[in-house]
Amino acid sequence: MDGPELFPGDTGTLSLKLRQALVRLLRGPYLDASSSDNVYNTVVDNQEELRTRLSELFLTLVIDEDRKVALLRPVDMPEPHTAVLQRQREMTREETLLLLRMRLILDRHTGTGNDAVIARTDILEIIEGYVDPGQRDAKSVEDLADAAIRKLVQERRLLLPTEVADVWVISGALPLALPYEHIGDIITFMQALSDASGELPEPELPDPEQPEQPKLEPATANDGEEPA
Question: Going from the N-terminus, what domains does the chain have, and what CATH number goes with each?
């Protein structure tokens, strides 16, 4: 069709390219520079215009130019009808522990130029270390690990496939999903999760169909040794 109108009755003013980028952001969970269609670059180049549109939906655009990742977060407003896009899925305890350990691994690789990778055998070892010894058997640990892997690969896209079977690259978007500023905070949270008597809020990550981000409340702690 001639002119800016993309379909009959269209009253929008954004170009087709920008509308497609907006839809991809809303679809979530994030955009990165590895996409072949350059949507990330479109978002970066037009971020001010997109921010204006997203503000209408009580959403803010977050861009990490170092990691080349873009995602959406809901604004914090207590007013009625401002939380429409904040439906979240709770993480299982195993997902939470795995993501926290993955965050530690990713931080160790910062500045090395190498991808941070994790294998299924590593994931099994991590989860086994936090399973009640009285309920631990090889099959149950494998089931818990495989369920967590499926969610992190297919829904959250925080584990990215490699050419090697059962080995994944840890996504650079993970620090935005778990926004801890101090490594000691991560370790403290993991230690608290391993304590059955610990009372903790259940962390959440965004539903892949929604653009919201989790609000983890990291504990305050001094840096320490990583738990086994």
Answer: 1-86 (1.10.10), 88-206 (1.10.10)
